[in-house]
Amino acid sequence: MTEEPTRKLAVLLHADVIGSTALVQLNETVAHQRIQDAFQRFSQTITHHNGTTQEIRGDALVAEFSRVSDAVTAALEFQSDNTTHNKEISDEICPELRVGIALGEVVVADNTVTGEGIVLAQRLEQLAESGGICIQGAAYETIPKRLPFEYENLGELELKGFNEPIRVYAVKQRSQPHAQIQQKVSTSDVAEKPSIAVLPLNNMSGDPEQEYFSDGITEDIITELSRFSILYVVARHSSFAFKGEKVDIKEVAEKLGVQYVVEGSVRRVGNRARITAQLIDAETGNHIWSERYDRELDDIFAVQDEVTRAIVATIAAQLGKTVSEKAARKTTTSIKSYEYLLQANRQYYRFNPDDNIAAARLYQKAIERDPQFARAYAGLANAYTTDYFIGWRRTQNALQNGLEYAQKALEFDSNDALARIILAWALIGNGRWEEAELELDRVLTSEPGDADVLAEAGNGFNGVGRPEVGIALLEEATRLNPLFPDSYQRWLGQAYYRAGRYQEATTTLRAVRVDGWGYGWLAASFARLGELERARETLNQFIAQRQKELKSSGVSASTTADLLGNYKDNFRTEADWQHLLDGLHMAGLTE
Prior knowledge:
Elements: E1 6-17, H1 20-26, H2 28-48, E2 52-57, E3 60-65, H3 68-87, E4 97-109, E5 112-114, H4 116-127, E6 133-136, H5 137-141, E7 149-157, E8 166-173, E9 195-198, E10 202-203, H6 211-226, E11 232-233, H7 236-239, H8 249-256, E12 260-269, E13 272-281, E14 287-296, H9 300-318, H10 335-348, H11 353-369, H12 374-390, H13 398-412, H14 417-429, H15 433-445, H16 451-463, H17 467-480, H18 486-498, H19 502-510, H20 516-528, H21 532-552, H22 560-564, H23 574-587
Parallel strand pairs: 4-6, 9-11, 9-12, 10-12
Antiparallel strand pairs: 1-3, 1-4, 2-3, 4-5, 6-8, 7-8, 12-13, 13-14
Helix pairs in contact: 1-2, 2-3, 6-9, 6-10, 10-11, 10-12, 11-12, 12-13, 12-14, 13-14, 14-15, 14-16, 15-16, 16-17, 16-18, 17-18, 18-19, 18-20, 19-20, 20-21, 20-23
């Protein structure tokens, strides 16, 4: 029975083997096998990037995507992998492909795709170099410019079969080193902005229980400084690596790759706080600015804004610039609500079922004190969504609560990037993928300079099936935060696996302390590389750690289904989930 033709606008990819006739003449059987192998590998890559291979026609392949960025990412990834693959072949039968990508209308009928879009993609492919990619100008216009691609404008060209000239771009991956575990970053890596690290303010209150307060003040100053586009600010995790140490400012600055350092102290007595802060030129050791603030605790937020503005203005003055931006407003005026937030954050980052529940209760107390406190709503949403995805199952309706509280946070502060990322994860859990992706794109349009935001967003893009974007953001986060936490590397390793870059996934995940699912990703990576003994050993660690995590929260861990829990909800397509699951099965996981 003939299928009724369907017309639609689509992103079309056309790939062709260069010199296929010459390859066949060398050895017909081997050439056909290797060409088909290349197309099968390309098809797998296309599937991983939300595309569909429509046809394989002898020495050509046709695929369809809904987004140009996915098509380009898939093509770049395959071309890179194919170059590596061909280097391992000892003879001359090495299929190399050219790729063309275009937007156009097509007709789909009887499993065949025809139309002007396919013809245009084919014409563009013929313009590409060996191992290269050419795209239509209209397609180029739709690609977010934050993606790590480089373009060469080939001009407006006359193409056979088209009346009007077509603007054509050659595209390749932007050169950038892979993220490495590092203890140091040079100042030259920090663009051309003034660079600054805020060291943890010393708790001078004589009460260890007040540590959260001085840490919270430090974190907020870091956060507010990160909002200023004229500054590069080292992330909290790197700065806090020096907490409690007697430091040499020059050594700290060299290690973190910064020009300026802020240090100081907090002394809290009753309802008053004294904050001292000083800004130091790391190269000379000179104190550029210092100030002491004695305030009622109700004024603490004004003090933080004063400190932030003073630091930025001082650096700007050193450079002969002016500061046009102002510190963002605080989202609460209640010191008690703020204290609950800081205590809740401390509980949450212990990352276990009991402390997660304790954190949620403290976020609730913060909200009771100030029903419009956006950051408390965001924290509460984060606790609930974490509960759901990790599989602790300690709270009822965790996913729905996470969604509602994240939306509430954005009602009171639409600029809260982390709240938007948490909302994206809640949407992911509900299967609302396009909405989740839109929220993540909105985060990036604000051009965040906060390493934690970039890392969280990178992990979010992993979740919506765009691992190459996730990789770019996570690698940038490690640059901004030279002493980055293990979570950055765990997420980066997962992104490498999702992108089919198994060696990088293995190297990255082995370099850090991983949690239960971290062992799962590592086991699958070993299996994909054929290191089955290591894969089995790591799988046993995955099973043991997951059983421990689940039993501590009162969840049965007797079956494979228990071990996997809700984790499938992290994946946009069945193929993406199956990609990981197959790796675990290769490592020895049974149903």
